[in-house]
Amino acid sequence: MTRLVTGWLALAAVVAGCSDGSKSGTGPPPVTYSIAITAPDSTVMVGQTSQLTATLTRSDGLPTSSATIVWSSSDNTIATLNTSGLFTAKAAGSVTVTATSNGA
């Protein structure tokens, strides 16, 4: 996800792949995960916040309720994120926001 703090928002999804540890051909196929990031605002002005949401989906359809989402910003002088995905605009510019998961 790339956010331009002064005017617009472009969303992107981070996709993560994980394996259950089985060797190729000897067990079920590996489970993969995808993360969809959503944001309620298309504009975030300096000094404002916006709550981002990351939804983790397993390829096998099983629930992911125990998964931990880790948020990061490509430039913390422009924008920061707390552990719950609260985006805070610090200065004008563009940042990439990433959500990753342990896939639990």
Please estimate the helix content. under 10%
Helix segment count? 0
Q: Poorly predicted ranges (pLDDT <50, ≥5 residues)? A: 3-16
Question: What integer value in Å does the Rg equal?
Answer: 16 Å
C-alpha termini separation: 23 Å
The largest sheet has its strands arranged as 2-1-10-7
What's the CATH class, please? Mainly Beta
Structural class: mainly beta
The coarse silhouette is: elongated
The CATH topology comes to Immunoglobulin-like
* Count of β-strands: 10
Mean model confidence by pLDDT: 79
Q: Based on the structure given, which CATH architecture is correct?
A: Sandwich
Percent of sequence in beta strands: 35-45%
Largest sheet: 4 strands, antiparallel
Summarize the structure.
This protein is mostly beta strands. The chain contains no helices and 10 strands.
Describe the structure.
This protein is mostly beta strands and 104 residues long. It has one domain (2-101): Immunoglobulin-like. It has no helices and 10 strands. The strands form 3 sheets. It has a 4-stranded antiparallel sheet with strand order 2-1-10-7, with no helix packed on it. A 3-stranded antiparallel sheet has the order 3-4-6, with no helix packed on it. Strands 5-9-8 form a 3-stranded antiparallel sheet, with no helix packed on it. The chain is elongated and about 50 Å long. It starts with a strand and ends with a strand.
